Amino acid sequence: MNKSELIDAMAASAGITKAAAKLALESFLSNVEGTLQKGGRVSLVGFGSWSVSKRAARDGRNPQTGKTIKIAAKNVVKFKAGAELEGAVNK
What is the pTM of this model? Predict the structure, then answer.
């Protein structure tokens, strides 16, 4: 399912217009992104939670040449599925 299909599904199931569903989805995504940028955590009980963890700088290897390369440190977004979501997927 892509973004436009999700918007269509949200509009149909909630009985709202596609424009309202698009606005709601974009607001949700914007708020999740903003919270994660500040180092916060977003948790939806039963669905899952998003958080940010720091990945340290490290040495890696170029698989084509075998040369050692430096991989920079960066922040990584993590998602942990909630119990209800896992249960629904594993029925």
Answer: 0.80
Q: In this structure, which amino acid lies at residue 47?
A: F
> Which H or E element spans position 70?
strand 68-71
Q: What is the Rg, in whole angstroms, of the alpha carbon atoms belonging to the chain?
A: 19
Q: Give the number of other CB atoms < 10 A from CB of residue 48.
A: 16
How far CA 86 is from CA of 1, 16, 46, 50, 80, in Å, comes to: 18, 28, 9, 15, 10
Closest C-alpha among 85, 5, 25 to residue 49: 85
Residues 36-86: pLDDT tens digits?
999 999 999 999 999 999 999 999 999 999 999 999 999 999 999 999 999
